[in-house]
TrEMBL record:
The lineage of its organism: Bacteria, Pseudomonadati, Pseudomonadota, Gammaproteobacteria, Enterobacterales. Keywords: Membrane, Transmembrane, Transmembrane helix. The chain crosses the membrane at residues 50-74. This is DUF1158 domain-containing protein. InterPro entries: DUF1158 (IPR010590).
Amino acid sequence: MKHPLESLVTLAGILLMAFISVLLLPAPSLGLQLAQSLMQRFHLLDLNQLYTLLYCLWFLLLGCIEFFVLRFIWRRWFAV
């Protein structure tokens, strides 16, 4: 019998692995001109806000990629 919180624990584990991957794979660094143009386009006050948003998007992107890759691997080779 499956535990009712199994899917939540699985998702939390994948997000934890994504967080570790984000720490190991640095977010892309932007050039100064590109950073300033993005700051003006999105009406940000300083570079800290821009890089905070970039870090969050990087975390979400890696989390989604890892979720779908691990789900594919699990369904392909380990599911009964």
